[in-house]
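Predict structure. Chain length: 273.
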Amino acid sequence: MSTYIQYIPQPLLSPFIESFWSYEADDPTYAKERRLPNGSIELIINLRADGLRVYNSQHEDQFQDLGRSVLSGVHSRFFVIDSIGRAALMGIAFKPGGAFPFLSMPACELHNVHVPLETLWGTAASDLRDQLLESKTVQARFHVLEQFLLARVAGSLTQQPAVAFALTEFQKSERVRTIAEVTERTGYSSRHFIRLFHERVGLTPGQFCRVRRFQDVLNLIEKEAPSAWTDIALACGYFDQSHFIHDFRDFCGLTPGMYLARRGAFRNHVPLC
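Prediction complete.
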C-alpha cells in the first residue's frame, strides 16, 4: 500500500514551486525505475535510514550513493533510481526555473546531475532532515519545508520578466510562437536571452521546448490510449512519426509502445523489472 500527498505552498512561494509532496510505501514491488525528464529541478529527502542511489543508465550495476537528501538537477535525458529506498520520502517539485532563487549557482550547473544537499547547503541540509523526522504529521513537515525555503532565498524572490514570459509561452498547450519570435518579444538579443534562460532554467530554450513537447505526449497518452502514433506526433508538433519516435527514445530510452506497456502509477516513473 502506498500514500502520496501533495501540498501547494503559500502565495509567496507558489510562483516557484509546483508542490511539496510526501510518499510512503510499505513494500515497493520493484527495485529500480526510470525517471523521465520534465524540465524541472526536484529536492528529495529520504526519511528512512537507507540512502538514495542513482544508477548508470548504461551499466546498471554501477551507481552513485547520494546520501539521504539530494537535489536532482534539471535533466534532458532519463536516469535510473533505486526504488527500494523510496519507502518514505519528502520532496519539493520546483516549477521550471523556480529553483533559481534558492540556489547559490546558475541552474545550468546542475544539468543532468544529482547533488547531495549537504554539498550545497552544508549542515543546514542535515538540520532540515532532523526537523522533518521530529515533526509528527505530514502537514507539519510541509510547514518545515516552507520555512526552510524562505530562509534559503539566495537573492530576490522575484521572477525575471523575460524568462517568466518565455516559460509561459513555451508551456502553452498550443504554441503559436517560435523560439525566435519569443526571443524577439523579450527585447534581448538571441545570445543574451539564451544565456539568461540557461542560467535560470538549466536548459537552453531549444532543450526546454523539446522536453516540454515530450511531456505533452505523455500527457496525451495518459488521458487515453492512442489510436495511432502519427496522430500523437502531429498533435504535439513533430514533423512526422519517425521524428517523434526518435525524440521519445532519446528522453525515455524506450519506444512509445514499450513505455505504454511498462509505465507505473506516475507519468514520469517507469518500473524496471
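Summary: The domain at 161-267 is CATH 1.10.10.60 (Arc Repressor Mutant, subunit A).
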